[in-house]
Amino acid sequence: MSAIEARTAAADDARLESAAPPAVRSAAAYAIRTENIGVQYQLRFNKKKTIRQSLAEVLSRQPVQRFWALHHVSVQLVHGESLAVIGPNGAGKSTFLQVLAGIIRPSEGIVDVRGQISGLLTLGAGFDQELTGRENILLAGAFLGLDEDLVSDLLPAIIEYADLGDFIDAPIKVYSSGMRARLGFSIATSVDPDILLLDEVLATGDATFREKSKARVIELVKAAKAVVLVTHDMAWVTEYCNRAILIEKGEVVVEGEPEEVVEVHREHTAAEKERKEAEAVAARLDPKLAPVRR
Amino acid sequence: MLGFGEMAAIKELRGRTYDASVRPGPLALVAEGVQDVLSRRRLVRYLARADIKKKGANTLLGNIWWVLDPLLQMVVYVIFVEIISPRKVPDYPLFILGTILPWKWFTTAVQDSTMSVVSQERLIKQIQFPKIVLPLASMTSAVIDFAFGMIPLLGLMLLFPHRITPYLLLIPFVAVVQYVFTIAFGLVVAAGNVFFRDLANVVRHVLRLWWFLSPGLYSISQLEGAGLFRSHPLLRQLALLNPFAILFDSYRSLIYGSIDRNGVSSPPAMPDWAGLVGLLVVSFFLVGVAIAIFKRLEPNFAKVL
């Protein structure tokens, strides 16, 4: 059995197994394993500021402010699974993806990732305005750490999918935003990763492009051995994911079947909305909290 | 359960484990940094090339500025010093152009390096790559500044033909020492600027002060001739500790020659090799320290930016 066949077979096995209780899953088969990870931000150091401000802070002996963007997150994902990460804005979903991608290192805990990992970048991040489309593809490939031969193999397909015509040899600065998005998307999806990290990638671009890109992402999700998806689109979660976690205030609240987790999220969102409305009403009734009118 | 074959296949996948409780030591950090650069040589090359292309494309006169800029700077200094200096230095334009050019290279490299990491903010937040390539590419592309500086230098040399010697061919050896020293300095400011955004301003002023404290417009022997060190011998030691005392003196030996305490100039000669080798060794050590510092701070870049 060739290595590729073996991998596919393993992935199929894992797909079947993911329905089984976690204990059954083989430790060797996981694609992603995080053990009790936490990401802590210290406001003194993790905020851009000037030397003068920092000195002032040190001299005034303010206590160091810290907060956990992510805390006690333990997740295991075997090859073949696709995990949805949902939760309110600012809950730590994107931080979680950044940790998996190796962009941010956790302050505590263990992250273990097996296989070539790829995230869909915000379209066109890191493009160099002065370089041509073609040169930017090479540059992006180098940033992603792809092999030179691989990039030159992928080049024709990337150019074709981006559909830029002669513009491919013009500097990026003359591109329209749509052209830029197409090129970025084409680069990001050209690699065939083992683990795919998706962060709200479907929210950008015009309607036709969104349709086209959605089809491509579905293709990738089907081909990838493991997928982690951050989204607000609950239809996606139930349709394409076989597991889901709900993150609130940096901690995993629920983990399990997508339908169940989405339901919990709906309830929480509704409760939160109610609470906010009640607060607004209270503020209107309480003159102390109301805005001062003359 | 998985069969043996399947398990082996999965183990083939490239793995990456990060354990927050394990902190690498400084030597491990240096090894990691060197490995980063070696594995991403192509990225450094692309970035440096893009940088060079941009520098030429953005200005009206393009690459002409690389030639014109040091010459104009030289003219200003020549006029200024001719007016205030009581004692004339023979062939003074050549005396200072030989130090203006390497200094311009150094300041360009350091200033570009300072901004190299923060200017890639969006990218750093979205993909994982060794950030050390950014300042390294900036400093490498700045070499072109010095290379183009050879054009006005050779042009000026035609006006002082008696100073033209084969010693000019040794300039690249001095440049290598300067390059290594620049990397040490540039890596630290590139990392520091992520945390303190006004570091770029501080660096600019430090560089200006550094230039006037370095023997660029004058030479150490002139100061000796003026009796400056007679009352303060410690000052002389300090002046000689400056890496640019050695570098400027070496460039000047090759391009201009030297000038003694009494203002008598002699033709080009071998530079102070012992001093250069010493500086090279120290610079390599400093590069090691700089890589360790950079790698230690690197994990926080994505958080702070």
Would you kindly provide a written description of the structure presented here, covering whatever features stand out?
The complex is a heterodimer of chains A (294) and B (305). By secondary structure, chain A is of the alpha/beta class. Chain A has 9 helices and 9 strands. In chain A, α4 (133-143) packs across α5. The longest helix of chain A has 28 residues, at 258-285. The termini of chain A are far apart. In chain A, 39% of the residues are buried. The model of chain A is unreliable at 1-25 (pLDDT under 50). Chain B has helices spanning 4-11, 26-39, 41-57, 64-84, 92-116, 121-126, 133-141, 143-157, 171-195, 199-213, 220-225, 228-231, 233-241, 243-255, 273-297, 301-304; strands at residues 15-19, 258-259, 265-266. At the A-B interface, α1, β1, α2, β4 and α4 of A face α1, β1, α3, α6 and α16 of B.
| Helix and strand sequence of chain A | HEHEEHEEHHHEHEHEEH
Task: Round the mean pLDDT of chain A to the nearest integer and report it.
Answer: 78
Query: How would a crystallographer describe the biggest sheet of chain A?
Result: 6 strands, mixed
Number of helices of chain B: 16
Radius of gyration of chain B: 23 Å
- How helix-rich are the residues of chain A, as a percent range? 40-55%
- Lateral arrangement of strands in the main beta sheet of chain A: 5-6-7-3-8-9
Kindly state the mean pLDDT of chain B as a whole number?
Answer: 87
Strands of chain A, count: 9
**How many strand segments of chain B?**
3
Strand order of the largest sheet of chain B: 2-3
The helix-and-strand class of chain B reads mainly alpha
Tell me the fraction of residues in β-strands of chain A, as a range.
15-25%
**Low-confidence parts of chain A:** 1-25
Overall shape of chain B = globular
| Count of discrete alpha- or pi-helical segments spanning 4 or more residues of chain A | 9
State the share of residues found in helices of chain B, binned by percent: over 70%
Beta-strand content of chain B: under 5%
